[in-house]
Amino acid sequence: MDDMSPRYRLRIIAAATMTVALVGFSITLVFPYLALKLAAEGYSRLYIGVATGIGGIANILVAPLVPSLAKRFGVQSVIVAALLTAALCLLLFDPFPYPAIDLTLRFLTGAAIGSLFIMGEFWINAAAPDRHRGLILGIYGSFLAIGFAAGPMVLDLVGTDTPTALHVGAGVFIAALLPVVLMTKGAPDLEGGSGANITSFLLSAPIATIAGLLFGMIEPSALNLLPVYGLGIGLPLTEATALVSAMALGNMLQIPLGLLADRIDRRVMLLACGLGGAVLALGLPALSATPWALLIGIFFWSGIASGFYTIGLTLLGARFRGADLAHANATFVILYSVGLLIGPPIVGAAMDALPPHGFFWSLSVIFIGYAALVASRLALGRSG
């Protein structure tokens, strides 16, 4: 990709960003619809929780295979196959199938979505020039956040009485094919590579890879449990759900964080995110009696937390190339999925044990633990 003109490089980054943002939109449109549909059909909350977690399990199992598939068939081919698989699965969810079929479709959908994130982020990271890598990934993260935020808004418009959400989601996956197929050249190089595995990347780049684990623990916990926290401190339902909106808006801070990451040691930036997130998490309970102050605090806290995602990917992109970068990105997605599976139960248990502020107190421990890891690596002069 080094011989590519800056303009074409920008087109590739824009195409990959648009594809993944559309995927994010479909995720938050379709999966809440499926959960509500299951509840209306009389399925237990336990089953709904298990069904939701299947996607994370699919990511963990399938992600290690994705770089090898891309090396054999091409990055574009993997993205196109994943988009078509996801679209087909969404169309098969209605009429609602038996649980075994439902879980199979969820596994396939989760595997397809995980593949899309691995290849899309790999493509963006590979195309980004290092001097602007943080900014580009910050813009990508912001567009992804917009996609995530738009899904529930559209679900409110189409409702849950008909499978329209599924049809719209499938249509968006199909539409996401367009920017990919228009990129007839410039797919990133997947040749070479050291043959490193997940353990190797964890040991050689713990700061960057574990940032994915932390963001996987924090983001789903906040999306699912912030309204519960709001109700627990006495906020009315509308104000409790507004906490999630403040969190979503905070993700827009990925752009200034990305800019800073192009000018400051990215390990130091991640240390600052860990310490800043911990300080805010410990301080936010003091703002709980003043809803507007709590909303502002959550906005900045969420923005700092989003730095784990943006700067973690930036650090990987600066260090690895080719097949190694694809495998490193797969490791990042796997660890995010592990965080998704373990984070909400841990935070939920803390909320039960330490009401009403166990939510932020438990997350502060996560931030502090990560900051300690980064500080120790910096003190020893180790890389990311």
Question: How would you explain this protein's 3D organization?
Answer:
The chain is mostly helical and 384 residues long. The chain has two domains: 6-181, MFS general substrate transporter like domains (Growth Hormone, Chain: A, Up-down Bundle), CATH 1.20.1250.20; 198-379, Up-down Bundle (Growth Hormone, Chain: A), CATH 1.20.1250. It has 16 helices and no strands. The protein has helices at 6-40, 45-62, 66-73, 75-92, 99-127, 133-158, 164-175, 177-181, 198-204, 206-232, 237-250, 254-261, 266-283, 291-319, 322-353, 358-379. Helix 3 packs antiparallel against helix 15 and helix 4 (75-92) packs antiparallel against helix 5. The radius of gyration is 20 Å and the shape is globular.
| Total of domains | 2
End-to-end CA span: 24 Å
How does the overall form come out from the CA principal axes?
globular
Please tell me the CATH architecture of the largest domain by its name.
Answer: Up-down Bundle
CATH class of the largest domain: Mainly Alpha
Structural class: mainly alpha
The total count of strands amounts to 0
Q: How many helix segments?
A: 16
CATH topology of the largest domain: Growth Hormone, Chain: A
What is the CA-based Rg, rounded? 20 Å
Layout of secondary structure:
Elements: H1 6-40, H2 45-62, H3 66-73, H4 75-92, H5 99-127, H6 133-158, H7 164-175, H8 177-181, H9 198-204, H10 206-232, H11 237-250, H12 254-261, H13 266-283, H14 291-319, H15 322-353, H16 358-379
Short synopsis of the structure:
This protein has 384 residues and is an all-alpha fold.
Provide the descriptors you would attach to this structure in a database record:
single chain; 384 residues; mainly alpha; Growth Hormone, Chain: A; 2 domains
